[in-house]
Design goal:
The protein is mainly alpha-helical. It has a domain at 310-327 and 338-352. 76% of the residues lie in helices and 3% in strands. A two-stranded antiparallel sheet has the order 1-2.
């Protein structure tokens, strides 16, 4: 366990020290992954389905604000839709504009969630998202996750009807437009996941903020079970095309990822909980203190701490002696000598340094 704690501390120190380099590299990796998955899933426009174009855009994303990744991913999808058909481009552009306005209004800080949700869905691990966002995010994260799910299922629905669109006549625009809209709206799996993920995020967020012992583990397990139960009920009720085996395996993976996040961000020792109460003129405060689990002090740190403690002890003794002498002089009515006042002032100056 101590080795894991030391590794975690090393990683944290490395990220804090080289944050100026770690962030661009992280954004580069996310942008590359998102654009490669978009081109691999769609691939209708050959001009942007190119490794050089993807690398150039990903490098631009690494030095731009994080929202730029969302913007470029959306532009890539719209470009592929335009290459497929004008109707697809119009529908997807309207949907993305609505999603972008919702995202900017309610959860502009959850940029990575909007991008990572379709990525996790494409990789077959979407059930990790609601548990992770319930632990690390908040209620507004429901909007970000829902935007990511809509983007994923929009691409999936259109790729499913792409052969039909290519075989239809281009003059029949109304029929093609209706086909695209119906394919997106009638996707039951999208609606099921949005409902299940929204309830899971709120449930995990509420439970992990309760003032109870082991709140995070309870939130992780309860949220994963809630997500799985809601998904199974909705699948059976709506006949949505969702794999039951995928739900079970995804729930287990969500539990594992949840405990990894707890170790990284909220590793506390519930066996040494302390409860403190104090009051002022207006309120009485009850505080529950839960100690964090960290790396033990090194011998060097312990020795330096001992030196500081001994020096602090001697300083306290000198201060007490000085206060005693001052109290004695005040009681006897004698005025302190100039030398004594100088020595006392030098002592306090040294103590402050």
């Amino acid at each position: 366990m101590s080795a894991l704690l030391e590794t975690r501390q090393i990683i944290r120190n490395f990220i804090n020290k080289y944050e100026a380099y770690v962030k661009p590299v992280g954004k580069l990796f996310v942008a590359l992954l998102a654009l490669i998955l978009i081109n691999g899933k769609l691939g209708y426009m050959d001009k942007i389905d190119n490794v050089a174009i993807v690398l150039i855009v990903a490098l631009m994303c690494s030095f731009m604000p994080s929202n730029f990744i969302v913007l470029m991913s959306g532009l890539f999808i719209v470009a592929h839709m335009y290459a497929l058909s004008l109707e697809c481009c119009i529908v997807v552009l309207v949907i993305f504009l609505v999603l972008f306005l919702l995202y900017l209004r309610f959860s502009p800080k959850d940029m990575m969630v909007v991008v990572l949700t379709p990525i996790c869905c494409a990789m077959g691990i979407p059930y990790v998202i609601p548990v992770a966002m319930g632990l690390l995010g908040g209620p507004y994260s429901v909007i970000s996750v829902a935007c990511g799910l809509v983007a994923h299922f929009t691409m999936k629905s259109i790729t499913g009807i792409a052969p039909t669109l290519e075989g239809m006549e281009s003059d029949d625009m109304a029929t093609r437009l209706r086909l695209v809209v119906d394919a997106i709206v009638d996707n039951k799996a999208m609606l099921v996941m949005i409902i299940a993920f929204a309830i899971t995020i709120i449930a995990v967020y509420v439970i992990k903020n309760l003032s109870i012992n082991f709140a995070w583990p309870i939130a992780i397990i309860s949220g994963s079970l809630i997500d799985a139960i809601i998904m199974l009920i909705c699948v059976l009720a709506t006949d949505a095309e969702v794999s039951v085996a995928g739900i079970i395996l995804g729930t287990l993976l969500a539990v594992v990822v949840g405990f990894i996040l707890q170790f990284l961000f909220f590793n506390v020792d519930y066996n040494h909980v302390e409860k403190v109460s104090f009051e002022d003129d207006d309120y009485v405060y009850y505080v529950k203190a839960v100690p964090k689990v960290g790396v033990s002090k090194t011998s060097r740190g312990s020795s330096s701490k001992g030196k500081k403690k001994s020096s602090g002890s001697s300083s306290s003794q000198q201060r007490a002696k000085s206060q005693t002498q001052q109290r004695t002089r005040s009681q006897s009515g004698a005025r302190p000598s100039t030398q004594a006042m100088r020595e006392e002032r030098n002592y306090y100056d040294d103590d402050e340094e």
